[in-house]
Write a structure and sequence with these properties.
alpha/beta, 12 helices, 369 residues, 45% helix, Rossmann fold, elongated, five-stranded parallel β-sheet, four-stranded parallel β-sheet, 21% strand, 2 domains
Length: 369
């Protein structure tokens, strides 16, 4: 009897050990922090269909890059996931974000019209949003929305400053708006700013909706030459305009950003306005290199802004988690207490509902080829 007890005890212990191992492999008894921590989500609303889709996927890559770096450093007791919706779905994208209780912050929105329809949805749910619709970001009445990008008036002021410098303080200006309603809105802002600055707007017209050719516009412009020419439109429209009319002299391409930000290799000859100036800093150079290495394509200035915005949301989460699992109101409150943030595009400061960063809009030039 006494000889069998140790053997029985040993067998029982072996069975317990094998059971524990089996439970670990089946996922019932997982103790690794990697799997036991809760998950929170950040949302990205980007243009993923139609003409701006190439730019939209740059946003996705930049956001993934920021979230992956954050999860790799594990500074919070939970893991972050990225949820992406196409802005082409309209206000439905905002409703999907709001309906997911794990989403505690959102960045994106490109089209001013879709963004304006979405703001009340976010505000009603108290979901904080960092907005990039710089062709007219006006979050009035939507307390949870902060604008990261320039306003329409700031874009117009930058265009006017460039025209004045290149063509002279009393230069004549011809202004053509592309076929989108956003193109016309920016053109109107440029005309108002140029007139206030003393420039002479001698011609202003808009292309017909869905126009892809500008031969008639070219003939009218040729009959009434001007010192400078401004075209507000998408990259595709700018290229068509360049094809139909080879403008000379001081020329500013003003791309309406919500329809696609041109890469330098694809932009038409001349100059165009970017919503963000490219900083000559090591941080921006390192971001561009890391982006290219990770995704096999060049980044863009708006993608860099998305990267900065995701990092700002993650920073707010870190400051909000002192009270426990962060909620939407706590993340929003942490964003409102932001006193400064250093990003790859420069230093950001909160001013009302504006997150002002970097040097603002910048004019980029290309000689063509």
């Amino acid at each position: 009897m006494s000889a069998t007890r140790p053997l029985t005890s040993l067998l029982a212990l072996l069975v317990l050990m094998l059971t524990a191992v089996g439970l670990m492999w089946t996922g019932v008894f997982l103790v690794s922090p990697r799997y036991s921590v809760p998950t929170l989500k950040l949302g990205l609303v980007a243009p993923l269909s139609g003409e701006p889709a190439t730019e939209g996927y740059r946003w996705v890559f930049a956001a993934k890059q920021a979230v992956a770096a954050w999860n790799g450093s594990a500074p919070l007791p939970f893991r972050m996931e990225l949820v992406v919706h196409d802005e082409g779905d309209g206000v439905v994208a905002a409703r999907r974000m709001v309906a997911d209780p794990q989403v505690v912050g959102v960045i994106g929105h490109w089209r001013p019209d879709v963004a304006a329809d979405s703001w009340p949805v976010y505000a009603a749910a108290g979901l904080p949003v960092l907005a990039l619709n710089y062709g007219g970001c006006d979050p009035a009445g939507a307390a949870s929305v902060l604008c990261m990008a320039p306003t329409r008036d700031e874009l117009a002021a930058a265009a006017t400053a460039y025209l004045t410098k290149q063509a002279g303080a009393s230069a004549s200006v011809a202004l053509v708006a592309g076929p989108d309603i956003g193109d016309l809105a920016v053109a109107e802002a440029v005309r108002a700013a140029a007139t206030r600055a003393g420039l002479r707007v001698v011609r202003a017209e808009a292309a017909l909706p869905y126009a892809t050719a500008f031969g008639d516009v070219a003939r009218r412009l040729a009959a009434e030459p001007s010192d400078a020419l401004v075209f507000t439109g998408s990259l595709a429209a700018s290229q068509a305009f360049e094809r139909d009319l080879r403008p000379s002299g001081a020329t500013l391409r003003l791309d309406v950003p919500h329809r696609g930000e041109p890469a330098a290799s694809a932009a038409p000859a001349g100059a165009w306005l970017s919503p963000f100036a490219a900083p000559n800093t090591q941080a921006y150079a390192e971001f561009r290199t890391a982006f290219s290495d990770a995704w096999g394509q060049p980044s863009s200035l708006p993608a860099a802004a998305v990267y900065d915005g995701v990092r700002m949301l993650l920073d707010a989460l870190q400051r909000a988690q002192a009270a426990g699992r962060p909620t939407r109101p706590q993340v929003d409150g942490a964003l409102r207490r932001l006193t400064g943030f250093s990003g790859v595009l420069g230093d950001y400061k909160l001013n009302g509902q504006r997150l002002m960063g970097g040097a603002g809009p910048g004019v980029l030039t290309r000689s063509g080829g």
